[in-house]
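It would be a great kindness if you could assist me with a short task in structural biology. A protein sequence and the structure tokens that stand for its backbone fold form the material at issue. I should value your view on which stretches of the chain appear to form regular backbone elements. The record follows directly beneath this note.
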Amino acid sequence: MIPVTTRKDQTIALFGLGGSGMVTAQALVAGGANVVAYDDNPQKVEEAGSKGIPTQDLREFDFSNADAFVLAPGVPLTHPKPHWSVELAHARNVPIIGDVALFADERRMHAGHSDFIAITGTNGKSTTTALVSHVLASSGRNVQMGGNIGRAVLSLDGISNDMVYVVECSSYQIDLAPQLDPSIGILLNLAPDHLDRHGTMENYAEIKSRLAGQSAQAILGNNDSYTKAISDQFEFEGKSITRISNERLETGFGVIDDQIVEFGSGDESFIANLHGIATLLGRHNAQNAAAAVAACKLVGLSDEEIQAGLETFPGLAHRMEIIGSVADVLYVNDSKGTNADAAAMALASFDNIYWIAGGLAKEGGIETLRPLFGNIKKAFLIGEAAPEFSATLGSEVDFEISQTLDVAVMNAAREAEEAGEKAVIMLSPACASFDQFANFEIRGEAFRAEVEKLDNLVPYGGS
């Protein structure tokens, strides 16, 4: 844990005692802050008290005594309306921050020479975070990885100048970190998402762009109109930026035929080869890899160290995760494909796909996937979105409404086996999971469990 010593003797109100919120409260207490914590869930309040965290209903707390208000990232700050605790803090002009802001303060105070790589984007940020961390660690660097990827950032093992911190940041965390100042800030891409929490695409894009805009070195995607416009604006303002893409660029790190290339002043320097790396399949992963290569070059890694790290990257669960194969049929778990933009990246990576999709639909459904319908052999639709998706697929794609994931896997496996040709059975739902599963991880594990029931399954990497 990282004790938050920068708030020693300050009075800090905190709301939200879930995973990262509980860790944040403990880190503040460990650093000597006077904490008053609360949650709408009485069980969480009781749990906090048992861990030595002072608690009080913040409706009864005098916010004029607070030096700061720490909000858990899952609690609404602005939309669809501010949480009641936020309104109380605003009424007393109390600064509202989150755990990433506290981490940035500690790092600035105690390890200002350490490398801090912060990564965001609508899609691909977890894969890129894990890839950067893996390549650095495989080269022998001291690395700690945390943030939105699953390990609360304040649960990392202390602060020191010889450490490289690789932190995935959600839009919620960035919104609660007004002075976020990474040494390297990566903005991969932008597409409409989380608009229920940010109101408009313009607000969402502005929040995401802060991470790169306030970094010493910014790495920005160049494959969508939003990030390209942000790159152009930063360049116009004289900010040092590096562009990344899964295509050729004038300057920056791009991709030619599975080769990551550094472009500049008419020169092309070949840095790394992605060919044959199963955990980095697809054009989207080519861009993720280009971003990782750019960051690792800035930290000082050699081309040889980068290549070795890329080749041993194990990938992430639920993100284009290859589970195994039965004969010529490959099974891929992309449960993290929770919107159409993410599913598009998966669908573009293969052809002859038996596509398992559906769940709780997001705005726009799968209409934007129409150009990729030719890659789909048949769709197996589950969850609440099944009727809507079937209407979009219409007569262009063969489909069945399977309703549940187990039926979809069973029927897709049978039909692929009967076809007797190379194929991919892929869960990439283009939907949230919340109609049938608590989260995308549980949905992905359910898919894995169904696949592992199949006869003659050869696990990925097995024989």
Q: What stands out?
A: DSSP finds 15 helices and 22 strands in the chain. The longest strand covers residues 267-273. The chain has a mean pLDDT of 95. Residues 283-299 form the longest helix (17 residues).
